Amino acid sequence: MLNEFRQDPVSGEWVLFSTARAKKPHPKDGVRFYQSKEECFFEPEKMAQQETPVAIYSHGKLVNDLSADWTTIVVPNKYPSLKKGICNPVHQEGPFTVADGTGFHELVITRDHEKSFAQFSEAETSEVIRVYRDRYTSISKDGCGDYISVFHNHGRLAGASVYHNHSQIVSMPMVPTAIANHMDGARRYFEKTGKRIHDVLVEWELVENKRIIYQNEHFIALCPYVSRAPYEVKIFPKKPSSDFGDISDVEIPFLADALNIILKKLFVALDDVDYVFFMHTAPPKNENPADFSFYQWHLEIMPRISIDAGLELETSVLVNSVDPNSAAELLIKTNV
Questions:
Q1: End-to-end alpha-carbon separation of the chain, Å?
Q2: Which SUPFAM superfamilies does UniProt cross-reference here (predicted)?
Q3: Are 65 and 56 in contact (CB under 8 A)?
Q4: Looking at 164, 166, 198, 280, which residue is catalytic?
Q5: What angle do CA 219, 255, 260 make, to 5 degrees?
Q6: Angle at the Cα of 116 from the Cα atoms of 112 and 122, rounded to 5 degrees
Q7: Which domains does the chain have, with CATH numbers?
Q8: Coil/strand/helix, residue 265
Q9: 0.85 exceeded by pTM
Q10: Is position 198 annotated as part of the catalytic site?
Q11: Which helix H or strand E contains 277, and what residues bound it?
């Protein structure tokens, strides 16, 4: 039985591993989140009535119009957290630092109402990743693109309010504190040792050989030693790169392959568990001339099995009730 604190060497965050907590009952409503096509905003006939798409793709290719054959579409969020506009400098309001809520908030919507990523083919996932990359690159040229978040919520516990498969891209006029902390941690390690911390972590995982779930020519997927949530998985590129925008056309199908394998394993092993996945990347180079070569972008998958309670909210110490070794063992033996 695992009962110990572990500190993430990049972010500095502490995680308390307490496998005895797995016996604690978790409330469940017993109802699977579902919306019919009739009540879905993202069905093709309804999409044609909404705002002009930002980008339209058909079977991997960027097209010019909303034809009957589109497979992935990018539209402005109807209820955006941020709005496009003039990016004013960060300023002071008394003792507080304030930035205007200016930026991009876009939805990346796939066509099939009933299919989630766990049912996607490699080609379908490749197209979505290509859309992520293309929009990330375009948005990074904007004056408010100091940081760009690319993420996908699957299920109610992950924050999804619409059943139909979609992802979100949000740009911000500043670098969020959590991201800045990751950059600072990786920078300090590099200055101290001359090594990139993510390279060291992956090399150690390869030597340990307990938590590697899958790898192909360009990517490796593992349950991290300091997992912040039960069954967390990180997918690392094997090529050094700090910026997700640098992913090549050659690498995209390999990332799609790794992501598909992991999400299918989670679907089978944990009964279509709710999850979030996101690209953890350095700030884009277009708006941030600083050298982030000490950092390694990667994709993180966070199943949403438990909710943060008093200890987590007060101290920011996360509690994980599943040993990463056990999580990896289950996912490795799950056939898909």
A1: 29
A2: HIT-like (SSF54197)
A3: yes
A4: 166
A5: 110
A6: 90
A7: 33-333 (3.30.428.10)
A8: helix
A9: yes
A10: no
A11: strand 275-280
